Amino acid sequence: MKCPFCSYADTKVIDSRLCQGGESIRRRRECFHCEDRFTTYERVEKVLPLVIKRDGSREPFDRNKVYQGIAKACEKRPVSSEKIEGAVDAIEKELMERGEKELHCKAIGEAVLKKLHQLDDVAYIRFASVYRQFRDINEFTNELNTLLQERQVKHEQTS
């Protein structure tokens, strides 16, 4: 690591600590030449896929768009911002683990639906109605009936 003070190319690490919940490492370094000390941070570079949109265009994955979509669906619902953040983290991790360079927006939408289904039924229906672009009340009713049937099955399994 090059010293930021004298540009000497050799330094030594004198202390390392985990920070940001284990997501990065803070290192104290000392220059062999000028003996000044400085801090560096090391973290994994996240290589997220490009998103193929419905019109065929491509854009970089934007975590903030996923967060905003989930937050909007959960508006005025008993879902904490920590749970929303956790859902976004899980979706981002799932997408990275696929190892694909490009992802269709449908994969992201389905991952969001899956997480919302676990978080809050009303938020799930809100997001599904926009994402799946229900054309009429019958499509909306079918989705709602599917959700109610799943809830009934879960209730019977726990009883």
Spell out the helices and strands N to C: EEEEEHHEHHH
Number of domains: 2
User: Which residues sit in consecutive blocks of at least 5 with pLDDT less than 50?
Assistant: none
Report, as a whole number of angstroms, the end-to-end distance: 61 Å
How many strand segments?
6
Overall geometry:
elongated
Instruction: Output the strand order for the largest sheet.
Output: 1-2-3
Percent of sequence in beta strands: 15-25%
Helix content: 40-55%
Instruction: Report the sheet with the most strands, covering strand number, pairing sense and barrel closure.
Output: 3 strands, antiparallel
- Structural class estimated from helices and strands: alpha+beta
Q: What Rg, in angstroms, do the CA atoms define?
A: 23 Å
Q: Count of DSSP helices?
A: 5
Mean pLDDT: 90
